[in-house]
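Notes, p. 3: input format for complexes.
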Amino acid sequence: MNNKIIHLKEMTSTSSYLSQLREEETLLEGTVVSADYQSAGRGQRNNHWESEAGKNLLFSFLFYPDFIKANEQFILSQIVSVAIKRVLDKYTKDISIKWPNDIYWRDKKICGMLIENEIIGDRISSSIAGIGININQDVFHSDAPNPVSLKQILGKEFNKDEMLQEFIFEINRLYDQAKANTESIIALYKISLYRKEGFHLYMDNIGNSFNAIIEDIEPSGLLVLKTERGEIRKFAFKEVKFL
Ligand code: BTN
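Output follows (243 residues plus biotin):
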């Protein structure tokens, strides 16, 4: 893929900007918008995404994934999560993917993503993956529970531009691979999961906590948990919390 990279010092949100641009002109697949600072960076659950100016990677990637069925749209999250993990693995140990698509270092979040799909019929016609990776930030001020940057882990600064190229390269590679065969990416996603082994504490959205083990992830993205009593429970994003 020939990625056009549009970089601006500041914007509200790279995903909002890319989405607006897509309305106004014809963009090629693989177009990337990146920023040094977002005045209104968007996170999951309507949260704000904290990122100090110039310290981290903030970018959004445009796909036209019409080979993906709407009811299997989770594969895009899997492609991007596995790509990010693979690049970060070259820098540090202990990187995992916390379902659905947070990237963790040990028990802390180093990267978050927001994938916004447009669906026509039974296919995904267009998708914007907005990705925030904490690279050189020293201190986090927001109430995000457990952020961490690569600099905090490794004690030195990294070249963000070089790293952006590595992330784009790996996303392209896995995306092309998925066009031929998604199975290996799904397998890589599953073996990379945070808490993939053993029983851990979860809480459902009526406030009941329970111990369970991750049994599977469905193609739609549902998390399948098996409780200590052997009961199978399936959750969509926002329906369960990792405690
Ligand atoms: C999360 O809450 O985990 C998702 C965070 C996603 C943040 C990225 S930063 C680049 C892109 N633009 C945004 O406004 N959000 C995403």
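The chain has a mean pLDDT of 96.
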